[in-house]
Amino acid sequence: MDWPHAGASQQSPHSPGGPAADCLCGMAFFLPVSAYFVWAGVVAGWSPLVSSLLFAGGIVLWTAIEYLLHRFVFHPTPRGRLGVLFAYLIHGVHHAFPEDRRRWLMPPIVTVPVAAVLGFVLRLVVGTASAPLFAGAVFGYLAYDLLHYASHAGALRGRVPRFLACRPRPRCSLGVHSEVP
Fold this sequence. Notes:
7 helices
């Protein structure tokens, strides 16, 4: 669903949870979480090499999850009033207020439950290997969101970073920030 742009000078309402929830998005929150789970993997008995490989696997895992979420969850065709509200709250507000700096990163009210489910599923599927894998996924999320933030802030320089930034192009209608269909 396309949301009308509210204009560059307007800001969206605060996240559910208020201004504190708006502030908890970013490195100050996610980097320590990622570091903790790397440490938890080593404590669980994984060698630094295996932990590093699992961490890299977590980054790849997050890349796939982000693509699938963005493609199939963040850009739904809502049905009914609750569907429109849900679509707006999870991602539509970002499109309605594209220049609002508070909307360039997902708020913890969304990311924490998603991370909890991911961590739980990983723990069930891969056991103690879940810690460094989860750390990589958290780091991948952080890297993606910081790239997303930088693309909106206009801080990307160079040919490749500018290519990664989604500017209005026909293929960006997929809801992802690359040319992958």
